[in-house]
Amino acid sequence: MFGLHLSTQSHRLFIFVPLFIAFFWFATLLAMLLTWLISGRPKYVSQEGKVAYISDVGASFLKPLFVVSCCITGVGFVLSLVLERLLRHRGRLAPSMRKRERVLEILAILGSVIGMWGLILLSGFDTARYPTAHRLFLLIFALGVVLSVIFTVLEYRWLAQDHPDIHKLRRAYLAKAVIGSILIVLAIAFGITLYYAPDVGGVIEWIIGFGFTFYLLTFAYDLRMAKIMRQKEALDMAERNQAL
Fold first, then answer.
1. What spatial distance separates the first Cα and last Cα of the chain, rounded to whole Å?
2. Exposed/middle/buried for residue 21 (C-beta within 10 Å: 0-12, 13-18, 19+)
3. Burial of 212: CB neighbours in 10 Å, binned 0-12, 13-18, 19+
4. Cβ–Cβ < 8 Å for 51, 199
5. Do residues 133 and 142 touch, judged by C-beta distance below 8 A?
6. What's the DSSP call for residue 53?
7. What is the pLDDT of residues 165-201, one digit of tens each?
8. Number of H helices and number of E strands within the chain?
9. I want to staple 149 with a disulfide (CB 3.0 to 4.6 A). Which of 5, 59, 138, 180 is the partner?
10. pTM for the predicted model, two decimal places
11. CA-CA distance, 176 to 84, in Å (whole number)?
12. Using CA atoms, how far apart are residues 215 and 191, in angstroms rounded to an integer?
């Protein structure tokens, strides 16, 4: 029944998932940043340099908002990947032609699950009260997301080669590759500056946080292709009926 529902459901419902997650994540970060700026850039208890980290603001009175946002974003990130996997299986998206794409899909989902738990736990174990645990879960979140990005980009590279007629698939691959590469480079820079240049690290972290929004939006573009495949199926069915 669930598979049948995916086959007939409008693509708009699928697109709503990553759109809502991206909007909620972006709005949360914007609210946190504006709160810090409008308050006169106060120095939080856990803050080391002049620039407050996302975690510093998230450990303040805005912690409930931060925790809720991390939970929604983490779960939504995994759900977006799972939706893609199910829609490919049901023929609503360009199907995986080889075993390697299916393996990469599963690995990308596993990476997102690791990232989800890292994000949820780092929000609960805030940097003010649990600094060691917070940094550990931050590392787990970053590792999970990086792995998921790498496997997803590789998957789309092969999908774009297997379906050269679907130009939107190649655009999706390029968008993921560019945004993902930038985020990975920034994550490496953040890991270095976190210990040697805290203020620079704080700026980079905010850039990564807002940049992650754009990566989430690429899934909305991916899921929009479910409309194209559905229209193609309808056209093929009409041609078969005419032939009969």
1. 30
2. buried
3. buried
4. yes
5. no
6. P
7. 667 777 888 899 999 999 999 999 999 998 889 999 9
8. 8, 0
9. 180
10. 0.85
11. 14
12. 20
